[in-house]
């Protein structure tokens, strides 16, 4: 671990993360008292956060997972392109109270799209919880209903976040890139 830390600057310790996730779980439990919560996790960044969060929630929880797929599509005008977002599998949310779980919210475009889509598919309610919130990079008017930590760093790894795959197993959040040799040895 010492060799790995030379490439990384720890931003959030394991203890800080555990404390904040416990606080979020307590607040969510209070807000959903007497209800069944349908937790929908956006993979891959949210998987560790979701695991810790739902273990602390004290109301019944149904867990579902979605993985975004982005496709660039050429627009009708020359040189114009748009990004299409597809999610698989599509969660069954009709008539449900949904908690959308994101590891990291940056621009907010994907989260906003998912919230609108779930409401259009008949969700009773949709709230967003983000482990990390990069508000300075927001491109739409979106605020998570719950968030763990505000950050400004351009690139972070650990606690489910990676580069694109290395570093997800780190129990803390750090800025920088993990050393591939030490990350592979874990």
TrEMBL record:
UniProt keyword terms in alphabetical order: Glycosyltransferase, Transferase
Recorded GO CC terms: cytosol
Entries under Pfam families matching the protein: Pribosyltran (PF00156)
Catalytic activity: GMP + diphosphate = guanine + 5-phospho-alpha-D-ribose 1-diphosphate; IMP + diphosphate = hypoxanthine + 5-phospho-alpha-D-ribose 1-diphosphate
Domain Phosphoribosyltransferase: 12-161
Gene3D superfamilies cross-referenced by the UniProt entry: 3.40.50.2020
Protein name: Hypoxanthine phosphoribosyltransferase
């Amino acid at each position: 671990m010492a060799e790995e830390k030379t490439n990384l600057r720890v931003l959030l310790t394991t203890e800080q993360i555990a404390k904040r996730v416990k606080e979020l779980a307590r607040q969510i439990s209070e807000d959903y008292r007497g209800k069944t919560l349908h937790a929908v996790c956006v993979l891959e960044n949210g998987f560790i956060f979701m695991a810790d969060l739902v273990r602390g929630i004290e109301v019944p929880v149904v867990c579902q997972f979605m993985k975004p797929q982005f496709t660039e599509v050429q627009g009708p005008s020359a040189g114009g392109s748009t990004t299409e977002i597809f999610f698989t599998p599509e969660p069954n949310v009709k008539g449900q109270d949904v908690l959308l779980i994101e590891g990291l919210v940056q621009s907010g475009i994907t989260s906003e799209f998912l919230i609108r889509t779930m409401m259009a598919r008949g969700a009773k309610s949709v709230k967003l919880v983000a482990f990390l919130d990069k508000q300075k990079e927001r491109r739409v008017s979106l605020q998570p209903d719950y968030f763990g930590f505000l950050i400004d760093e351009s690139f972070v790894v650990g606690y489910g976040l990676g580069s694109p795959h290395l570093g997800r197993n780190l129990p803390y959040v750090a800025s920088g890139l993990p050393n591939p040799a030490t990350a592979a040895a874990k």
